[in-house]
What we know:
Blueprint: H1 5-13, H2 24-35, E1 41-45, E2 52-58, E3 66-71, E4 90-92, E5 95-97, H3 105-121, E6 127-132, H4 142-151, E7 159-162, E8 173-174, E9 176-185, H5 200-220, E10 236-238, E11 242-244, E12 254-263, H6 269-290, E13 295-304, H7 314-323, E14 330-331, H8 337-342, E15 347-349, E16 364-366, H9 367-385
Parallel strand pairs: 3-6, 3-7, 7-15, 8-14
Antiparallel strand pairs: 1-2, 2-6, 4-5, 5-16, 9-12, 9-13, 10-12, 11-12
Amino acid sequence: MTLTARDLMDRLVGFPTVSRDSNLDLIDFVEDYLSGFGVASTRVPNEDGTKAALYAHIGPEVDGGVVLSGHTDVVPVDGQAWDTDPFTVTERQGKLYGRGTCDMKGFDALALSAVPLALERGIKRPLQIALSYDEEVGCTGAPPMIDHMVSHGLPRADTVLVGEPSMMKVVTGHKGGIGYKMHFRGFEVHSSLAPQGVSAIMMAAKLINWANEVNAENAAKTPSDLAADFVPPYTTLHIGTISGGTAHNITAKDCHFGFDFRIVPGEDIGAWQARFMDKVAEIEAEMKAVRPEAGITAEQYFSVPGLRPEEDGKAEAMIRRLTGDNASNVVSYGTEAGQFQERGYSAVICGPGDIAQAHQPNEFITVDQFRQGEAFIGRLVDMLAE
């Protein structure tokens, strides 16, 4: 049965695919929906089988098609004040409310709506659908899916369109990122004897202060040509959460926090990793000089390559032709576009909705933006049928 794009969004939002939970019910639905049109799909499960990515090929078995790429996971609603059921699409005053309507089940619905349209119009160049998991926790679900697409002989597409919310503007660059889960292990003594112990919190503060110093250092530099259009136009270091300590009069035994980098294109992620680990080693040596039991664990939990503007990129040329947008647009958040590009695909970002609504309570996409997305999908299928 053919569902409208809006029907599809209603169904997709109804699956509470928060990243900490399984997305398999949604994947089952998509697999069944595609099967109803005679379209076979391929699952790429995670290691424990609790989640899966899915991709499908529609049209002739030739190179030169288009991949419509989206993620199926959403961020939590815990602690947010919603005026409506976050997992039911609610239309009010020209806005469609619900978790994922903007980021990015709205685009996923549009991608799926293209399938019966492509079959009806007899496309001459293929359409491929690629839906990932765990984008919201570090873009960890897309790489195995992309590798599977490449290694299992899927015809190579000319264009990958990652439909993150960009107000239907063509985005050709984004920052890369790396993230670490930090654990400083101190040694407890009474705070009156602090020099005989190691405070995990106070030693962690040295690394956090280093982050502030590096941010100031980066901000003072003249931006490179590749970085100039970003806001801010330089690599940033950030600590968003921290916990630790037992009592005010005990040197802290433990300190946990997250440490993230947002790296502008043109800078080497590996070089930042090396610089970071050198600083960690320096602080750890200082801790161990007091108590050998003390130490630091830095667990890298994500690494996302940046998206670089491509010279004469096929993806950019095609999507600009479809949208009419010729402006230079870059974003500071990370996406799966850089992961496709890293594996040899030409990739851009373009999707309906405003990123400012992503992750917010009462997340929404406007009806107008969703309709613009529908019109775009129609033009895309027409182009593939030429």
